[in-house]
Specification:
The complex is a heterodimer of chains A (231) and B (290).
Chain A (H helix, E strand, L loop, with lengths): L5 E12 L2 E12 L3 E5 L6 H9 L6 E6 L2 E2 L5 H6 L2 E4 L11 H12 L5 H6 L2 H4 L10 H13 L5 E5 L7 H14 L4 E6 L2 H7 L2 E6 L2 E6 L7 H5 L3
Parallel strand pairs in A: 3-8, 3-9, 6-7, 7-8
Antiparallel strand pairs in A: 1-2, 1-4, 4-5, 9-10
Helix pairs in contact in A: 3-6
Chain B lengths: L3 H32 L6 H19 L2 H27 L4 H23 L4 E2 L7 E4 L2 E4 H23 L1 H19 L3 H23 L4 E2 L3 H4 L1 H11 L4 H21 L3 H16 L13
Antiparallel strand pairs in B: 1-4, 2-3
Helix pairs in contact in B: 1-5, 1-6, 1-7, 1-9, 1-10, 2-3, 2-4, 2-7, 3-7, 5-6, 6-7, 9-10, 9-11, 10-11
Classes of the chains: A alpha/beta (231), B mainly alpha (290).
Amino acid sequence: MSDAGDILTVSGLSVAYGASRALFDIDMRVRRGEVVGCVGRNGAGKTTLLKSIAGFLKPSSGSIECDGKSLLGLPAYAIAGMGLKYVPQDKRVFSDLTVRENLELGSYASRDYDWTPVISYFPKLKSLMDRKAGYLSGGERQMLMIGRAILGRPSLMLVDEPTEGLAPSIVLQLKEVFRELSKTTTLVIVEQNLPLVCAIADRVYALNEGRIMAELRERADVTPESCERYL
Amino acid sequence: MVDLQLLFSSVVFGFSLGSIYFLLSIGLSLCFGLMRIISLDQLLYYSIGAYFAYSVGVLVDNFWLGVACGMAIGGLAGLAVERLVFLRIYERDITFSMITSFGILIGGIGVIKLFWGVVPRPVPVPIETQVSILDTEISVYRLVVIAIAGLVYVGILLFLNRTIIGKAIRAGIEDVEHVEGLGINVYRLFSITFIMAGALSALAGALHAPLIMVDPQMGLEVLAFAFMIVIIGGLGSIKGTLVSSLLVGQIVSIGSLIYAPLALMAPFAAMIVILLYRPTGLYGSPLLKR
């Protein structure tokens, strides 16, 4: 049961790829303004969870509600249009398009043509506007993906392993960006980088083999050591 | 020794044939690139374009009005098929779209036979003037066909590079799931692509009609060439489709000049050689599964 403060409520969610079940009876709640971390090893079901919420996977059972409205059966573009943006983990920008064109697509989708917040979070993108996105480094691609997603000021962002494979300096920059973003946007961040997620998350769900093993509710409990115990 | 005038004439013939192949194949290539479907029904719109060019030409004695009508009907037919059939099978395996679209093509040929009969029909060449270039008589109509294909190519490039819908289609060719994740209704993009593809296939058929006899099987006759062009050029690549269309047009034309059976065999040999060196085609990139 969701309450008025919840922006996202997931109840009894199960997802399967053919005969292979990836998520078992997941219950999850995200309150407006929170930063919620999802941690787990490879194959724990973290990406499957985010993709199911974002509408890319069809759950076999359970419910997903955003602001009290069911997301089940809605196409992914409609869910994104409701202000729920998914930033995938593969850093796959549209490589044949320039940075500017990538951002234009974000603007077109969200009807938000003010790129000031994007440039203020990622000043480097300004000098890369005319570069084909395929020539960007991993960090620059991540900046572009997050920048594209924040256009339209989404109410909830689902960010999938944003720091995977990135240089420490970029990871530090992203940490600050997420801190800033969390002042205006609710964030669900899937990460294997426990120090990072514990530094920014208010609560953490620990997943293992498609099940939620623990929910660390108190800010004081959200430490890499306590997360490790459940992985 | 090949006569130089004959060779020049064959080159122009090859370019005009390649231009028609380009207009025909572009829809097939775009549909695969964006939607990961094999849309053999494009060959039906090619026939529809040809038959409308014939019928409107007979009725009002205006070939170009027939071309325009054919394009409109081809585009609308493409949209109808997309909405009624493909929309339900986008998520299925690619072979499903191939078999389904082949069924639509065969069914469509039956409808054409019903309305126009099975007898091939001649379409008068709308421009009968010849010009002398390098002491060779060249049909102006063939030059017009080449010019139209060139204009269409430039138009498609402008559409894909300068309009937001075009950019979304280019992005979708790379990764349609990420386009959807931004909040863009990809199904609308699919419909726009189908309308464009259907209209261009019909344009190919209409322009080809005066150069051949229109007959119900004409779509099936170019099926192998259309497939080959899309594969040689690289699936989803506009530039690749143009280059491979012109290449195949020249191979057919020059091949038939050297030894007639080469016109049919040589393009396939060229495809095999190209695929051995570039398995993704001339301008193809490893495409992601939808």
